[in-house]
From TrEMBL:
PANTHER family: ERAD-ASSOCIATED E3 UBIQUITIN-PROTEIN LIGASE COMPONENT HRD3 (PTHR11102:SF160), SEL-1-LIKE PROTEIN (PTHR11102). It comes from Sphaerimonospora thailandensis. It comes from the Bacteria. SMART domains: SEL1. This is TPR repeat protein.
Length: 485
C-alpha cells in the first residue's frame, strides 16, 4: 500500500556513518558489511578510560565504543554505546539506531532514534520519521517528528514535509517547507520551488529558484533555467545555463542536445555535431537523429547512417525518413529505403509517405498504406515552442501525475501558429477558421485556450492527457478542413 509522501524512502542501509567514525566498505568473513577506517587505533588499554566507562561516565563509554568500532568489533561497540546511551549520551543513542537499522532490527532502531530525537537530535528525528512511514505507516507520528527535525535544521526533513504537502494538494504549506529545505542546502527543493513557481505562472520566481539550484551544482535546475531562457528567446543566457548543466552532469543529454541546436542555428556544424554525439552516446533519440542529420550535412555519410540507424531502430519516424533518403540517394538501396519510408509512413510521417509512394510508383493520390495512420507532426519546430512544451510536461507531471506527451503539445502549439498564418490582424481568427474549416467554433476556441495555457502557465489548469488527446483530434481535423497536413 502506498502512502502519500513516502516516495523518497530511506535507503535500506543508512547513508551516513556512525558518529565520530570514518566508514568504509570492508569484507568480514566473506560478506560485505559497513566497516570502519582502521587508523591503527588499538583497543583501549588506558586504565583511566576503562575505569571511567565502567564507573558510568557516558562520554567515556561512548569513546570506548567508538574505539571498538574503529577496530571492527561491532558487538563490543554496541555494548558500550548502550551503557553510554542509557546514561544520556545522544551520539551513542544515534549510533545504536544506525547499528540496528543496518542489522535488520528496525523496531530497536526506532527506540534508539526516539531517545536521541527526544534529546534534540534532528537527524535522529528524521530517520525515526522515515522508519515510522516505511515500517508502520504511522503518518501522524512521523509527521510530528519530521516537523521537529525540520525546525531543528534538518533540510531533508523539511523537504520530506514539502513533498507530503504537495501530495495532499496543500501548495502553500509545500512552499513553506521547500523554502526551509532549500535554505538548509537542499538543492532538490530549490529546483522544486522553481517548478511550482513555473506552474503557477510566476516565471520570475521559477528563474530565481532554478538559478539558486544551478549555482549550487544542481544539473536539472540549470537545465530547466536554460529552457526558460530559451522560451523567452534569450539564447545567450540559455547557452550559459545549458553549459552549467553539463558541468554538473557531464552526460546530460537534454543540455547537450539544446547546445547542439543552438550551434546548428549558427551553422557551427562541428560544435553541433560534438554536442549531438554527446547526447547520442547516452542513447538519447533526439541526439541520435540530430547527430545523423548534421553528419549528412558535413558529408560524413557512413557516420550519419550509423546514428540515423540507431534512432530509426528506436522507432523515431523522422530518423527513419532521413535514413531512407540516405539509403536511396547515396547507395541506390531502394529496398532499404522502402523499408524505412514505410516504417515512418506507418507512424503518420507525411514526407515519408510521399517518398514511399514514389518508390512504389503509386498513382498520385493513392495511399501507399492500407490503413493510413494519424498524421505525424513533421513540420519545423521553433526552439521556443519545444522549450515551452518540455516545461509544460515537467510542471504537469509533478509528483508522478500523468503528463501529456511533449510531441503532442508541440503539435498543438504548432497547429495554431500554422492555421492563423496569413490571417488579417484585425480578423476574428476563431470565427474565420470555423467558417473555412467547417469545425464548430467552440472546438477551435478550446484548441486556442489549451495553446495559451502551454505558452502562459498559470492562466488555467494544465491540460490532462485526455484533454490533450481531445484537442489533438481538433487540431488534425482543423488542418484537414483547411487543406493543410
Amino acid at each position: 500500500m502506498t502512502f502519500v509522501g513516502t516516495t523518497e524512502a530511506a535507503p535500506a542501509r543508512p547513508d551516513i556513518p556512525l558518529r565520530g567514525i570514518q566508514v568504509r566498505e570492508v569484507q568480514v568473513q566473506g560478506v560485505q558489511v559497513q566497516g570502519v577506517q582502521d587508523q591503527g587505533v588499538q583497543v583501549p588499554r588506558d586504565a583511566a578510560l576503562l575505569a571511567a566507562a565502567r564507573a558510568g561516565d557516558p562520554d567515556a563509554a561512548h569513546r570506548l565504543g567508538r574505539r571498538y568500532a574503529e577496530r571492527g568489533d561491532r558487538w563490543a561497540a554496541r555494548q558500550w554505546w548502550e551503557r553510554a546511551a542509557q546514561a544520556g549520551n545522544v551520539d551513542s543513542a544515534f549510533n545504536l539506531g544506525i547499528w540496528h537499522q543496518r542489522h535488520g532490527t528496525p523496531s530497536e532502531a526506532m527506540s534508539w532514534y526516539e531517545l536521541a530525537a527526544g534529546a534534540g537530535d534532528a537527524e535522529a528525528a528524521f530517520r525515526l520519521a522515515v522508519l515510522l512511514l516505511d515500517r508502520r505507516d504511522d503518518m501522524p507520528t512521523a509527521r510530528r517528528w519530521l516537523e521537529t527535525a525540520a525546525e531543528d535544521g534538518s533540510g531533508r526533513a523539511a523537504r520530506r514535509l514539502g513533498l507530503l504537502c504537495e501530495d495532499e494538494g496543500n501548495i502553500t504549506a509545500a512552499r513553506h517547507w521547500h523554502v526551509k529545505a532549500a535554505l538548509e542546502g537542499e538543492l532538490r527543493s530549490a529546483h522544486d520551488l522553481g517548478v511550482l513557481g513555473y506552474a503557477a505562472g510566476d516565471e520570475t520566481e521559477a528563474g530565481q529558484w532554478w538559478e539558486y539550484a544551478a549555482r549550487g551544482g544542481h544539473a536539472e535546475g540549470a537545465y530547466h533555467l536554460g529552457l526558460l531562457r530559451q522560451a523567452l528567446r534569450d539564447d545567450d543566457r540559455a547557452r550559459t545555463f545549458y553549459r552549467l548543466a553539463l558541468r554538473a552532469r557531464a552526460d546530460h543529454p537534454g543540455a547537450a542536445c539544446r547546445l547542439g541546436g543552438l550551434a546548428l542555428a549558427r551553422r557551427d556544424l562541428s560544435t553541433a555535431r560534438a554536442y549531438f554525439e554527446l547526447a547520442a552516446g547516452t542513447g538519447h533519440v533526439d541526439g541520435l537523429r540530430m547527430a545523423g542529420i548534421v553528419c549528412v550535412e558535413m558529408g560524413e555519410r557512413a557516420v550519419a547512417g550509423h546514428w540515423l540507424g540507431l534512432a530509426a531502430a528506436a522507432d523515431d519516424p523522422e530518423a527513419a525518413y532521413h535514413l531512407g533518403l540516405l539509403l536511396v540517394s547515396e547507395h541506390g538501396d531502394l529496398t532499404g529505403g522502402r523499408h524505412w519510408f514505410r516504417m515512418a509512413a506507418a507512424r503518420g510521417h507525411r514526407r515519408a509517405a510521399s517518398e514511399l509512394r514514389a518508390v512504389l510508383a503509386c498513382p498520385h493520390g493513392e495511399e501507399p498504406l492500407l490503413y493510413p495512420p494519424p498524421p505525424y507532426w513533421d513540420r519545423p519546430v521553433t526552439p521556443e515552442q519545444s522549450a515551452r512544451a518540455e516545461l509544460a510536461v515537467l510542471a504537469s507531471g509533478r509528483r508522478g501525475e500523468p503528463a501529456p506527451g511533449e510531441r503532442d503539445l508541440i503539435e498543438i502549439i504548432g497547429t495554431w501558429d500554422l492555421v492563423i498564418r496569413g490571417l488579417p490582424e484585425q480578423a476574428d481568427p476563431i470565427g474565420r477558421l470555423a467558417e473555412t474549416s467547417g469545425l464548430h467554433a467552440t472546438s477551435i476556441e478550446h484548441l486556442c485556450s489549451v495553446r495559451a495555457t502551454l505558452l502562459r502557465p498559470g492562466t488555467a489548469p494544465w491540460p490532462t492527457p485526455a484533454e490533450v488527446a481531445h484537442v489533438l483530434v481538433t487540431a488534425r481535423d482543423l488542418r484537414k478542413g483547411l487543406g493543410l497536413r
